[in-house]
Amino acid sequence: MDELEWARTELSQLEIIERTHLGQLLAARKVIQAQRIRIEEIIKRRQPAIYRLPIELLTRIFGFALVREEGKQKQFDVIRTRRRNLAGVSRLWRDVILTTPDLWSDIGLTPLRDQTPLLLQLRRSQGVPLDVTITDEAEYLHIEQLLRDLLPTTDRWRSLHIYNVVDIPNLTAIIYTLSEALFPSLVNFYVDMQHPGNGEYPDPHHFVRRTPVLKHLKLGNFIATEDFWTGPLETLELTFADGLNIPRSFHRLIPAQSLTTLSLIGYVKGWELRRSSIVFPLLQKLTLDIRHPQQFLGAISAPKLQHFHYMDYKSVWDAFGMYEPKFDNVHHLTFDAVSRSVSCLDGVAFCQAFPNTNHAALHSSSLRFFFQSIRLPGNSGVWSQPPVDNWASLERLTILDSGTDIEGFAPLMQWLEKRKAFRLPKLHIKLTAGPSSLLDAAEVSVLCRKLQDLCVLELDCLPLSPGAHLTWSTGPPYLTLPAIEPDLVNDIFWVRTK
Questions:
Q1: Backbone dihedral region of 243: left (phi > 0), alpha (psi from -120 to 50 degrees) or beta?
Q2: CA angle 316, 382, 370 (to 5 degrees)
Q3: By the 8 A CB rule, do 47 and 79 touch?
Q4: With 90 as the cut, is the pLDDT of residue 10 above it?
Q5: How far is residue 468's CA from residue 478's CA, in Å, rounded to a whole number?
Q6: Tens digits of residue pLDDT in 346-360
Q7: By three-state DSSP, how is residue 196 classified?
Q8: Pairing state of beta strands 427-432 and 455-460?
Q9: How large is the angle between the packed helices 140-150 and 168-178, nearest 10 degrees?
Q10: Which residues contact 229 (CB under 8 A, 6 or more apart)?
């Protein structure tokens, strides 16, 4: 066989291989196309992904959607509407909601609540712990009937909150009715009592004695008495009624040995405290907003105290610096006071009382008391370091009402520039403000631009009331915004103003 014949034979064999592979390819394509059609049909038959979530995950999502913020009893109507809307999405969602007792555990006794829905909710909650809220703005007879229906379930009450019962006889009747039952599982109790002005006052003490596992107690407009009693609480929050004395020995009734959180707020007078007479071995968080706190601060010993929230109730600054250091373990400090009568020297005493502060929260109007250098008495030309330099461990600073006192940031800016010059680590600064503190967008933008180079800046929901306006004549609405740094826009929300 010569060379030509050999080449033709090899070509013939290759063509055979080609036809074989081509046939296989065409057959594979047909199979692939059929498989694609089958997959599309399966996808069309399948339910959307939201309906294929595991029941446990779906239940948790519903739980987050039906959470009521503490203290907002009006949200019960919203929750009922939301629960009904969720149940109307599909049969699966309806079955999950109707058969998950935890989604029915938030019980609200309100003037608009009817007996039949309450009984239905109790049946659906089955045996899970209940969170009960009572609010009364109507006739007590309505609430009383609902209470009678609810009393058989007190063995599984986990929390009880009583809000906005402005009629004192009604509140007294509610507490009296509750005092007839036992609450073996109640962990959290909060009642906001109103001052009657006529000497009659509801007494929650007998009710508290019927809660053997109570851990968290919060009493608003509280009148202290000598028979006040609690078990070994973990959290105690007392807001005292104004203008009334408390028993001299009231401090002995506080469960100091078990408390991890203590809050005392209001006009307190009448007690007699000796230095280092109250020991809180487990206390970690303390909130103090009482007039003349010197006695209390001198009397307490709290070796594990880490969070101290101090509010200015016309108090005297010399409460700090009068005693030996006793707050060395406090690393999170909130100074929630805006008094302009505070001198810088008092700021030094305050900072020295908490030498290991790591995270401080201050108002913008009080920044100068902490970050401004001090002219020493008797030496007109000699300046000392600012009070904040006593916090050598400071890493984080939160400004509570950012923007309400822009000029107050000047001492902070100067202090940060010096810190940068010495090549010290950048401070983490968070600017925040309440929804009612509407800020000027242009001023906030300028402030943030200055701070960005001097610290690690964080913005936490700053509500703005800027020179923004909405125009709408023809076509779509047109929103004009003031000049704001582009990288700040995502960290700011806008509040509608009247």
A1: left
A2: 35
A3: no
A4: no
A5: 11
A6: 678 788 889 999 999
A7: coil
A8: parallel
A9: 10
A10: 205, 208, 209, 253
Contact 412, 454 (CB under 8 A): no
What are 271's two structure tokens? 């007690």
Query: Which tens digit of pLDDT belongs to each residue from 279-299?
Result: 999 999 999 888 777 788 888
Is the CB of residue 125 less than 8 Å from the CB of residue 101? yes
For CA atoms 137, 436, 427, 341, give the dihedral sign.
negative
Q: What is the DSSP string of 448-464?
A: HHHHHTTEEEEEE-EEE
Q: Residue 345 carries which DSSP code?
A: H
Instruction: Give CA 270 to chain center in angstroms.
Output: 33
- Residue 238: which residues within 8 A CB-CB, separation 6 or more? 218, 219, 222, 224, 263, 264, 265, 266
Helix H or strand E encompassing 288? strand 285-290
Q: Which tokens belong to 48?
A: 């959307």
Taking the CA of residue 212 as centre, how many other CA atoms within 13 Å lie in the half-sphere pointing to its CB?
7
For tokens 């065409």, what's the residue?
Answer: 26
Type of residue numbered 139:
E
Q: Compute the C-alpha angle 37/39/42, nearest 5°.
A: 110
Q: Which helix (H) or strand (E) holds 398?
A: strand 396-399
Helix-, strand-, coil-residue percentages of the chain, each rounded to 5: 40, 20, 40
pTM of the predicted structure, to 2 decimals: 0.78
User: Residue 12 — φ and ψ, nearest 5°?
Assistant: -60, -40
Amino acid at 68: R
The rounded distance, in Å, linking the Cα atoms of 483 and 467 is: 10
CA 148 to the chain's CA centroid: 34
Classify the phi-psi angles of 493: left when phi > 0, otherwise alpha if psi is within -120 to 50, otherwise beta: beta
Alpha-carbon gap, residue 472 to 18, rounded angstroms: 69
Say which amino acid occupies 341. S
Of 204, 238, 199, the closest CA to residue 218 belongs to: 238
Q: What's the rounded Cα separation, in Å, for the pair 312 and 291?
A: 8
Q: How far is CA 110 from the centre of its chain?
A: 25
Q: Cβ neighbours of residue 233 under 8 Å, at least 6 residues apart?
A: 214, 215, 216, 217, 255, 258, 259
Which position has the token pair 């600012």? 386
154 or 497, higher pLDDT = 154
Six-digit token pair at 187? 């962990």
Amino acid at position 62, single letter: F
Nearest one of 409, 426, 429, 406 to 418, comparing CA atoms = 426
Q: What is the tens place of the pLDDT at every residue in 156-193?
A: 999 998 877 666 667 777 888 888 889 999 999 988 76
Backbone region of residue 88 per phi and psi (left: phi > 0; alpha: psi in -120 to 50; beta: other values): alpha
SS3 261: strand
Q: How far apart are alpha carbons 283 and 263 in whole angstroms?
A: 11
